[in-house]
Amino acid sequence: MTDTNLDEDEYDADLPDSDAEQSTSSAQQSTLDSIQLPGGRPLDTFEADELLRQFDAKIIAVVGERDSGKSTLISALLRQFKRSPFNNLLFAGSRTMLGFEEKAWNVHAASGNLQPTTARTSVEEGLHFLHLALASVDAPGQHIHLLLSDRAGETYRGARDVPSTGVSLPELGKSHLLVFILDGGRFADPLLRAEAEAAVRVFIRGLLDAGIIGMSNQIQVIVTKYDLIAARPDNEAILALDATEQGLSRLTEGRVAGFSLIRTAAQPDPGSTVEAGTGLAEMLSGWCGVERPRTDPPLAGMELSTEFDLLLTRWQRR
Amino acid sequence: MSSKNFVIMGLPKSGKTTFLAALWHLIEACEVETSLRLAQLRGDITYLNTISKAWREFNPVPRTSMQSEPTIEIVVADASSGETALLAFPDLSGEGFEQQVEQRSCTREYLERCDVCDGLILFLTANRSHDDLTLYDIHDAMGPPGEQDVANQVPWTPKAIPEQVRLVDMLQFLTRMPFRRAKRRLAVVISAWDLVSPAQRDPAAWLARELPLVDQFLKTNGRWFEVSAYGVSAQGFDLESGDKDAAARLGTSARVIVDGPNAGPHDLTAPLKWLMMA
């Protein structure tokens, strides 16, 4: 067994003299015979900060209202890697394995459900993160750390209605990438399409106009259930989505660091011509490749009181 | 004489104790060629005699309970160099590893052993159940549920964690505090190897095919684990449904099946020899 030296720029938050470690050690009560091990549950902002001090992780803020498909999208990721490497990426670890498992439980055959669903995040749970470490097949030792935000959709609905309250949602301004979920199932229905599109468009516009997000942020709109859009007659939904994409691109042009819209179908309905996993490779490549632009993030109205908040200033110093 | 300490890891029914039972016989009886041979009998070998008796008589080897996790010490000699070494490894119960994942705790003894060990042996079994099927898999195979089907929802508990996730977590624990953060040699031993068709008996390929999440984790964490994989059938056949007489006719040691790097066809000591080379 050989002791492993850390890289020069790597801070080991696991070292016992770490302030963070001491403050959490009280939560990790060990007895003479029993040693507490890392929990594996979703990380709170404090734990996320610990990880960010150790790794150059990318914060992916997954934003969407209730039933938009946020949790389904996140839980589909680990499921993908459980079956095989994906898009030339390998699974390298996760500090929140139990978090992924619990979130994906309602898709599991042993859950007793008849139809796959995903456990909703409750408002009371607040902001948490799921951690996923990946690596390229060409560089398996170089890990790419993703922190995926997880928050109840009802909270985002509140921020859509009063955009200035978005300042209390730190993951929005701090993210490397803001991922908005556009519910493809609703978009496919002509009677629900306008509201499905507005849910995303109005939210983005509100956050931009309130200064919550700006040139330090990149935006990605993920359209879920694209198989249902493609199944509509005469390509009418496909064309409508193309127009939506153009509209959102115009809305964000010159106001954010980058915009993209990706059409996904994690689990198409049987008989669909859309292949399972459509768009996920492009989405994941975007997540792994995103870099934070070197501009000052918007700080208007933000209270920098916690370590997680102060992370914002550390990013500025990099 | 050098001293080597190993830690054996594995979930319940992964073949840890059966391996030890057969190993003891092989190195003591010297019926087949092995990399390591028994150099000296020492200490209390009651446990080894008990489990190897069951193995020799084609009976199920008694499982290790959490209340009784004996430490095995064997003095071996390298068949080629004659160099002797004391190998020590506790036969830890699979339930203890389940507890690590489900209750997020381990014994102080386990922690201390891992921190000073010269290598790890991770037992997996080819006799796997598909414990991570999704409703999508069920629908693909059997079609969507009918009107007569009734949901019977069960809340999630840590006991529902599937095998791959358990194994990854067990390994991940070793890369973080409170464990000593160091690179370790890891011999992956896939038991019940007789259940794998001969055409597919490549241990590394089996790992990538059957436990892709574990395989990916090991490939990306070479900083923590140096890995060598072996396929092993300590019984040589399916004890519940196989032909014991036919197995007996093969010869006691010759019924053992081993595949892996530099491993003879019956050489259960090959993983240990590799660990000792660190």
Layout of helices and strands:
The complex is a heterodimer of chains A (318) and B (278).
Chain A: E1 2-3, H1 19-25, E2 34-36, H2 45-54, E3 58-63, H3 70-83, E4 89-93, H4 97-103, E5 128-136, E6 139-150, H5 153-161, H6 170-174, E7 177-182, H7 184-188, H8 190-209, E8 218-223, H9 226-230, H10 236-252, E9 258-263, H11 280-289, H12 307-317
Parallel strand pairs in A: 3-6, 3-7, 7-8, 8-9
Antiparallel strand pairs in A: 4-5, 5-6
Helix pairs in contact in A: 5-8, 8-10
Chain B: E1 2-10, H1 16-29, E2 36-40, H2 46-56, E3 71-78, E4 84-90, H3 94-103, E5 105-107, H4 108-116, E6 119-125, H5 135-142, H6 163-173, E7 182-191, H7 203-210, H8 212-220, E8 225-233, H9 244-250, E9 257-259, H10 270-276
Parallel strand pairs in B: 1-4, 1-6, 6-7, 7-8
Antiparallel strand pairs in B: 2-3, 3-4, 8-9
Helix pairs in contact in B: 1-2, 6-8, 7-8
Which descriptors would you attach to this protein?
heterodimer; A: 318 residues; alpha/beta; 12 helices; 9 strands; 38% helix; 17% strand; B: 278 residues; 34% helix
Structure description:
The complex is a heterodimer of chains A (318) and B (278). With 318 residues, chain A is an alpha/beta fold. Helices cover 38% and strands 17% of the residues of chain A. Chain A is built from 12 helices and 9 strands. Chain A has a 7-stranded mixed sheet with strand order 4-5-6-3-7-8-9, with helices on both faces. Chain A starts with a strand and ends with a helix. Chain B is an alpha/beta fold and 278 residues long. Chain B has helices at 16-29, 46-56, 94-103, 108-116, 135-142, 163-173, 203-210, 212-220, 244-250, 270-276; strands at 2-10, 36-40, 71-78, 84-90, 105-107, 119-125, 182-191, 225-233, 257-259. An 8-stranded mixed sheet of chain B has the order 2-3-4-1-6-7-8-9, with helices on both faces. In chain B, helix 1 (16-29) packs across helix 2 (46-56) and helix 6 runs parallel beside helix 8 (212-220). Chain B starts with a strand and ends with a helix. At the A-B interface, strand 1, strand 2, helix 3, strand 4 and helix 4 of A face strand 5, helix 4, helix 5, helix 6 and strand 7 of B. Strand 2 of chain A pairs antiparallel with strand 5 (105-107) of chain B, so a sheet runs across the interface.
